[in-house]
Amino acid sequence: MEYVRNKLITTDFERTIFRGAKALENRNTLVKLTVSLRVSRFMLIGYDQFNKWLSADHDHNKMGIGVFFGALMVLAEDSGCDKKPILVIEHEEELRDKPEVEVFYKDHHIPHVRVSRTPQGYKLDLIIGDSLKATHYAYTDGEITKALDSFVRYIDYRPLPGNLINGATESCFNMALAQKFRDRFNVYNQVPLKFIIAIDQWRRLDRNLTRNLALKTIDIVITEKDDHEQKIYRAFKIDMHESHHQDKTAEDDERIAKLCKEARAPLVRIYKHPTTETIFFDMPASGISANMSDDVFKNYLITGEIGIFFFFENVSPKPALIQSPIELYEPYRLGCPLGQERRALSL
Length: 347
Hints:
Blueprint: H1 12-22, E1 33-37, H2 47-56, E2 73-77, E3 85-91, H3 92-95, H4 99-107, E4 112-118, E5 121-128, E6 131-138, H5 141-154, H6 168-180, E7 185-192, H7 193-196, H8 199-204, H9 207-210, E8 217-224, E9 232-239, H10 247-263, E10 267-272, E11 279-283, E12 288-292, H11 294-303
Helix pairs in contact: 1-5
């Protein structure tokens, strides 16, 4: 089965800014930085602080969907278990019809860079609260990198209160991906579901199925490093917290899986059975599934061997639920061409 992979970068403008930001990952900065595309904006301050902010003020602008939607990109710490956001990068045009985002950034003094095209080149404005702190003009990727570097130095690398990684399972899984596949893939976090599904697929889906789900966040997304459109290669939804056993959350989880199946989105769902403690790995679009005991799963997490799952799509007949993951996976070798997808558990 062929997946329909959505693009996280769709214009030359976004591509140029992305190249300039990505170059910061290789610079000798005080804090090692990483770029994450399309982060849900409310994750910049975290669930608790965001809910307090909503309930403390009745300004209707705050309820706009822009706050839940994905920022163009975020510079975050590339160390520790939380991946703390530091600086947000936005396309000026995307913010023009989103007053709720301006209110959100102002109220929480979130440092953000608004990038626009001018006759003088790319204009980068650093704004904190409602104050313009610095402006740089850039013509090349390298000049964009220097401008962003000066901005993170200006704010002294101070992290925002939110986390792009939440929970031990997500943290271990994210670190395994980042460490073992750093040269092959980019790893992003907290991407709204709307970006996981291609726009033409989204439009044809049943609205009863998509209702209230577009802005649900997907924990981890990977893309190929050399893909200039940053098409989603795999998306991982980690439903390990006990809250996923509650009726409303469990219902939403099932609806998301069904939606991704209909849209042929490359989603991998990882979840725990509420009574047997069995861990399941499902790819709704392909119908492939496997499971393992909780003890085995924890061992893989502790040793960092959880790795990444590359599924054969042309298995015939398709395997049903398999007790041993080893029956479904084989070691993934880094030299394997990406076009020839392999299955992997132990790396």
